[in-house]
TrEMBL record:
It comes from the Bacteria. Pfam families: M20_dimer, Peptidase_M20. This is Peptidase M20 domain-containing protein 2. GO terms for biological process: folic acid catabolic process. It comes from Leekyejoonella antrihumi. One of its GO terms (molecular function) is para-aminobenzoyl-glutamate hydrolase activity.
Amino acid sequence: MTGIVGVPCDVLERVGAHLEEHRPLLVGLSHALHADPELGGEEVRAAQRISRLLGDAGFEREETPTDLPTSFCYRMGRSPMVVTVCVEYDALPGIGHACGHNVNAAAAIGAALSLGSLTDELDLSVKVLGTPAEETFGGKVTLINSGHFDDAALAMMAHASHHDTVGGRSLALCMWNVTFTGTASHAAAAPERGVNALDALVIAQTAIGLARQQLPPQSVVSTITTEGGSAVNVIPELARASIEMRSPSVDALQVIQARVRACLQAGAIATGCTMDITSVGNDFADLRQDATLATFYRDAMIARGRTVELSDAAVASTDMGNVSHLVPTIHPLLGYDVADARPHTAAFATYGTSQSADDAILDGAFGLAMTAARAAVDPAQRERLVDGATVRSLAPVGRSSSTRI
């Protein structure tokens, strides 16, 4: 392993040795999570496993929102240079850890434990946030609103993938459930008495389809019908759909939301139905990775012997995007051998406990730890990051922020 500019050799060596010493613990955590997948908001055993591990390592537990029971917060050190490590551990229905969150969690914990052993030497604090339900309602947004990121100098995590990259973006995301309500009637004997809710949904979906050409570039609007009537000879009284919207930026997402809402209203107006829109979970902002921290991570991973691409491509969506709008953030993709499989497939999940995945845990933990260490010892970066956290703590961004974009 080669040196890293700006990082004392003894720090580099100690982190490497610490990770090797804790390899069985970190790999064991990853495998335990993989064997016992839990859905977003229900990750009781995962949170307990990780909490015990942090408590045993000397981290002190702090309060988290009561309405987010599978979250947790642990801290070591009291320096204003607060390194916030985000831990994901939710799985997907039917296919388990097909997004590799078992690897995410273990790499994050590896970084936190390594940095925790250096809090005095580097004059930093390590804050470990358990962030549930990334796949569903977005627990990080709830933690933003409870003020848990207000003191963060930087925030970081690594995400399992089929390749190594850092600097990339994500798409802003929101999901709605819509219900059209009309009036049921016999479709043959008294159709004139009915108000057809399914017609309202068809008109709305048609309008959305026609509107796609005029939406901001790279926007995606997906719809499915979840209810459209119970019998062919009954005018449908209820029709329901789920709608997902993604766009490269929060501003563009707001344009899409306004356009889609108008299309839905068109269906209601044309048919005489009433309409109800319910947001599903928190809206996700686009991810904006900090360029300097991304470079630090890439340099550390190169020193570890890995090849890491610097990229600004937009990939999927994550509630880490919301964090990145408030705090200097990195969210690198951490690659391991998955053959031709891609995330969110059963095939991807089968590689989550492979030797390649296990090695990636330690490499990712090293990259994250070295990123924080380098930022802590670089006077200019330390000042930038601590000053930003000070400003946020004086005018907390979390408690004044909406969960909606």
